[in-house]
Every structure is written in C-alpha cells, then in structure tokens.
Amino acid sequence: MLSIALGFVGLLLLDLLSICLCLVQENVARPTALPRPVTVPTTDQQIFLNLPRETWCLDTCDGLCQDAWYVPATGASHHTVLLFHDFRADKAGMANYGMLFHRLNYNVVLIDNRATGQSEGKYTGYGYLERIDARCWVDMTIAKLGTETEIVLFGTAMGAAIVAMTCGLPLPPNVRAAILDSSYTTAIDELRYQVNQAYHLPAFTVGLTSKLVKLQAGYSLDQASPLAALKSARLPILFIHGADDETTPVKMADELYTHYRGAKEFCVIPHAAHLQSYATDRKQYVTRIVGFLDHHAA
C-alpha cells in the first residue's frame, strides 16, 4: 500500500512539474513562429504605418539587439514618446497609440520588447528585464534627438509594467511623465489570476513556476513588481484602466494608484475590456491624456 501511495504522489508531482513547465513555455519563453492572426487594421493604424520612419537598433547590456521604429513629428517638436507593447504583441500593434501622439506633434519611438518582434532574446521579463532595456532606450533617444528632447513613457499591459518599473530607476530630467494603461501590480499576481481563471489551479503552482523561471531566464516572477518599483518613483503618472478588464482586474490599477506617492491621475473607462479603453471611449481617453500632458509635460 505504501509503495502505491508513494507512486501516486510521485505521479502527482510529475504532473505538477509538467504543468509548471508548460506555464513557463507559454508565459515566459519566446513563442515559436506562428501565423499572425488576420485582423483588419484601423484607419489610424494604416495611416501611421505608412508614415516616414527610421529603424533604430539598440545593443542591450546583456548583448541582445533590439529593434524600434522612429516616426518624427510633422512639425518641429522637442516632445517624444516611447511606446512599450503588451505581452506577445509587437511595435506594429502600437500604431493606434502612435497615431494618437503623432497628432499631438510628438516624435514617436515604437519599441519591440526583448523576445518579441524583431528584437532578440529567449525570454520575456515581465518588465523586470525590460526596465533596463527601457532605460537604455531613453539614453539612445536623447543621444539621437538632442539634450533638449522631453520624453514621455507610455505602455499597455506588460508594456505599462515595463514603464512602471523603469520609473523606479534613476532617470534623467528629460523624462517628464509616464502613462500606464492596464498595468498589473506584480507578475506573480497577474499569473495567479490567469492560472485561477483559466485552469483553476492552486496558487502555489505559480510559486513553483517562478522558481523554474529563475532557473531558465535568470529572474523570478516576484522580482517583476511595478508595485515595488513605484515606491522609489516620483514622475507624474497617469493610470488608465478598463472597468470591465477581464485579464488584469481594475483593482490592480487602483492598488498601484493608491500606493503611489508622486503626482498622479486615475482614469477608469466604463465598460472597457482589457486594452479596449481607447477603442471604447476615444474622446475621454484622449482628453485625459492631453490634459495630463499639458499639466505635467508641456
């Protein structure tokens, strides 16, 4: 009987390990090449992607080549926005937001995060690894556009987490403000929520997954914490979130906003699902961004 029980426990442990390895592969490792879903681009995306642009390349501290597009403002401008995309997305997917800032006469830099798009890398860092990359992109932008350029950091979902964690680093005075659309509090919280919603697995599964991430990617999920990073940040920050976000609950944005001690604004878009705030209420979205920028980055 004891040997049967031990064998049963062993099988359970093997199943649990297999599940955690699958979570690492699905959520951290660079995906294998898959056909992109066929979607009809919006008018703004089409216009923006046809604007003149340059390709910028950054060599990261750990020897990766990262890729970005630079789209200059129509008129003379010392305002520049750096755009950071969501998990499993790429810079082209940020074209709607690029067009928003282009209309505000901003220079726009759209960045492929590590392990996505045209940027190298094997693993996503949930913002922890990317925060160092983002800091380097800030320096490159200043070097290319001049010391008078004033920078706004903007990100969606994981991109927002990247921005939040970048805000916790020492930054040059050129960086004037940040906008976080749908950030999570921590990667641990986000993955626990996803695992519970999709698979109804126990919370400790994520803890084991984090240890496997540490072995494979060199960081643990608890290190990817916008909530912790913002404790040392003082930039003006606009927090945006959809009220009906089914992927990253709005309570996470509320927690980030409540604990932040710098200048801040909070915008919740009613009825908006995950990353649908701009599409759901474009007028309010743009109005809040313009008002925030006029006050903190003019």
From TrEMBL:
Keywords of the record: Hydrolase
InterPro entries, A to Z: AB_hydrolase_fold (IPR029058), DNA-binding_regulatory (IPR052920), Hydrolase_4 (IPR022742)
Keyword check for Hydrolase: yes
GO molecular function: hydrolase activity
Residue ranges of every copy of the Serine aminopeptidase S33 domain listed in the record: 78-187
Protein name: Alpha/beta hydrolase
Species this chain originates from: Levilactobacillus fuyuanensis
